## 1
Amino acid sequence: MTRSIPLGPVIVDIAGLALTPEERTRLQHPLVGGIILFTRNYESPEQLTGLTREIHALRQPPLLITVDHEGGRVQRFREGFTVLPPMRELGVLWESDHAAAKALAQQTGYVLAAELRACGVDLSYTPVLDIDHGNSSVIGNRAFHHDPAAITELALGLIHGLRDGGMSSVGKHFPGHGHVRADSHHEMPVDPRALSEIERSDLVPFRRLIDNGLGAIMPAHVVYPDVDDKPAGFSKRWLGEILRGRLGFDGMIFSDDLSMEGARGVGSVVDRAKAAFTAGCDMVLVCNDPVAAEQLLAGLDYLMPAISLARIARVHGRGGAESLKKLHHDPRYVAAVKAVLQIGARDGELPLTR
């Protein structure tokens, strides 16, 4: 019998292609509310569908199943899925044909969401709303463009496509990761710009998309000392005063991975989670560090607020084909895949497979 357990505020991962007994136990912990999947968890659409079905059956309400599946070098599932272009390719097309680029962005979002939903995945952490300032090593061609207006329109098209495919959206990395060279996976980036400069550029896509149905936001592990000495994901000023207050965002806020180097300066993993919740995050991610995940589940005392539970419900997946095989007979899907496969050149970089 499926156990009735209210969802918790922690998103964890698993080691392989199937759940171990220990992982089944962990996923039923009251503090767990979701799971993030990686390339190591994928073998085929059939295997993925079986895995997500087992995860969803563990408890009620079902856990939120998430993945980083943007396209380009950040696409966790490839064999059996449409290989999506880096979002920069849509930005390149934007230079010559705004309408065609936005239409293709919508088709890309639809294909992305429809395929994941057919395999039981609820949510992808996309779109990237960072501006390409020509500095960032980790963002690069994950960014649509260097022009905030172009990013806004292309991301809006992608979000509409995601919604058509039964999926919400996650704008990242608030308030903008594109100006710093350092990779927050490995070090603590610092963006010295004044808030007024960030507002004129990096915040533009977030502001516009918040007004147009953006479901969730993930803040950056970046320090903006003109605003706060804490990284944005641990900052009440960024998340409470600016994001919730000035920008009026009432959707889900996911922390970025608390195991990243850009988060470690806040203290232990329990300290990091508490700081993220205090700042305004609804859920926190702990990835690729099972010891830290166990420490967090053992040491955190936190009751998820009702408003956060309501926000989780709003970003769960909806509808979707019963299988990829069935989806492959849908004329709209077939036409969208054909269009997506014609977008630009393929990304030659190795995928991020952590």
Note: Confidence is low (pLDDT under 50) at residues 345-354.
## 2
Amino acid sequence: MQTYLEFEKDLADLEGKAAELRAMARKGGGVDVEGEAKLLDGKAAAMLADLYANLDPWRKCLVARHPDRPHAIDYIDALFDEFTPLAGDRNFAEDAAVIGGLARLDDQAVMVIGQEKGNDTKSRIERNFGMARPEGYRKAARLLALADRFGVPVVTLIDTPGAYPGKGAEERGQAEAIARSTEMCLRLGAPLVSVVIGEGGSGGAVALAAGDRVVMLEHSIYSVITPEGCASILWKNAEKMREAAAALRLTAQDLRKLGVVDRIVKEPVGGAQRDRAATIRAVGEAISQELASLSKKSPAELRAARRRRFLEMGDATLA
């Protein structure tokens, strides 16, 4: 069943009416309603295209958070063969918000690491809504080190509101764990391609996205803070999140212009949730192409280019 966002109310009405007409026809009565239903379908399709061609930054946030978008585990299941999950940080615990392990992509060994939000109440609680604790980032750093040791390319799938800010996480060194994971990304001697598939929130996202190539889905977001958090700090009012979303320049299109991301993967009309399979295929093609473009570089060349990329980013964003 389709889940509609707040700005899709009129679209929901149109699609609902078309569905009702077809349901009436199935029950019998001898009334031919297919022509009218197709007319409503056409109006709904036009409305959908218009809505998604003119999304403002706040609406982009809503789409990026849509519960029906494909999550990391969906991409792993569809794109990677022989996935062997690796668990635990060898220090404190396993963190279900971060999943990772060795796999094959196009018959090439890779390390894939993703942030997983869960897809129902039980799994969302288990995975802490994609907000990793220190042990999640320490696990990621461990897997990055393993990939570095064997020269295995890394793919990271970014989808988190941010790192978990709870007292226990801070007591166990959340900031240090994020810094270690970011450091491992920068030190990696193998190619690293990061894809923002939903939300890229704050240091919790950067910890897995400091790579050679950063790819974003068309309606994903990537920012230093959530719009609600920014509004609460700047205006002391979380209801100012629309203004904050515009000011943060968090859309894929803005970040591509600023040089923060390298590539935007187009989503189906209506967002990734409207055609999950097509979205996953497009992301898979982008990952394969980016890895191929990096495959000829030596570890020293990769590290030097990555270092240069992030040192020069401030100049690009200020231009």
Note: The chain has 14 helices and eight strands.
